[in-house]
Give the backbone structure.
Amino acid sequence: MQAMERVRVLIVDDHTVVRRGLRKILESTPEIEVVGEVGDGSQAVTEAEQLHPDVVLMDVSLPGLNGIEAARRIKATTPGARVLMLSMHADEQYVRQSISAGAKGYLLKDADDQDLVEAVIALCHGETRYSGTLSRAVTAEGSRAPDVLSPREREVLAMICSGRTNREVAEELGLSVNTVETHRKHIIDKLDLHSTAELVRYAIRHGMVS
């Protein structure tokens, strides 16, 4: 990155007041430019593809597609963007899941303003940043979700686990109900799970839903 270039940041949080606060903190330094802000994971994936930010500042808990799964998709669709997770949860499992999804940092929401600014700039320069209390989780062995599901199947599974019906999933993804039912059958066959409760447990364990 040339010295005159600013770090381009996309903010993802479902609370408007929080997004405004984060924007104000980040834009207090001339080194950072906020290029967009969105309120859910699906929008984050779309906007990252369109805006090509250097850093995506991502809340873990989001409606619909959660931050960890959104990070996984952004890594696949916009590999140049580095994801910094931001959460209220000091939970090592979330940290491990975030790392598995491709995130390069994890800060708690009680971090100092300067810590946030420094973390965003550090990620842009290829470094990683984690809140001190969670750093040990970075070196701990995390369970990676088997890459047996396609991106579309992971998307369908996350929506099923959030309580949507096949018809609702079909409408949201622009698919036919038959296609969603086929995806669901493939998911069950691949994972060898036989109830919605088992699917939900699998999705939670691998950070696909909160």
About this structure: The chain has a mean pLDDT of 86. The chain has ten helices and six strands. The CA atoms of residues 9 and 34 lie 5 Å apart. The first strand starts at residue 7 and ends at 12.
